[in-house]
Amino acid sequence: MDQNLGFRHERLEVYRVALAFLGDVAELLAGLPRGESAIADQLKRAGDSVLLNLCEGAGRPRGREKAHLYEIARGSGTECAAILDVLRVRRLAAPARLAPARARLHQVVCMLTALARRARGEGEGGGVAT
Asked: What pLDDT does residue 122 have?
């Protein structure tokens, strides 16, 4: 595919990592026992919010609005981290199943932090394109 075609967010590494995290979420959701629809829905919505706000931010010009959307995405990412902790504490998912998702999510949150700083003009974004 021609690099000039497509959407700006599709060229971001954080977009690819966030998509992979949504794959992790899908696997975790498939393994949850019946009766856990509330926590499942919360994880699904928070995970979707990470990706959707990232993409919306990528489509905005530099500045406060762009940074704000990246910060919302990051907040949804930290919400996902807390939900993963809930799954662990309530023994709804084994720590070995949660670890890869948590590591990928940490990477996404770090990248979003760098993107928000860069959008606000606070310096380099750690090698990620905006």
From this structure: 80
